[in-house]
Amino acid sequence: MIKNILSVLIFLFIISFFFLVGNIYFSDDQEKIITKNRETIKQKIKDNIDNLSILPNDTNDVIEFNSSFENKNNKIKRSFWKLFEKND
């Protein structure tokens, strides 16, 4: 008998917990707080982007491409069967 009462109380406690958490989470006040926080973060990001300084481009002719690699044919001929040949 006590076990059944305890089970019912635990069940009611769990149901009431989820109801209260859901009620607070989905309330209009919570949505207003979330919207306000998002707008504040967007404004901070916009202010930080506006305050960035633009650096001059000083990378002219820094990288020179070496095209000599394209002209060479460095493929090594390999053969599996030559590995079994005896080296003297």
Task: Give a description of the structure.
It is a single chain. The protein is mainly alpha-helical and 88 residues long. It is built from three helices and no strands. It has helices spanning 2-25, 28-50, 68-71.
Q: Outline of this structure?
A:
The protein has helices at 2-25, 28-50, 68-71. With 88 residues, it is mainly alpha-helical.
**Topology as a string of helices (H) and strands (E):** HHH
State mean pLDDT (0 to 100 scale). 85
Q: How would a textbook summarize the main sheet?
A: none
Radius of gyration, taken over Cα atoms and rounded to an integer in Å: 36 Å
Beta-strand proportion: under 5%
Q: Give the class from helix and strand content and strand pairing.
A: mainly alpha
Shape: flat
Give the N-to-C terminal Cα separation.
94 Å
Poorly predicted tracts of residues = none
Number of strands: 0
- H/I helix tally: 3
**Fraction of helical residues:** 55-70%
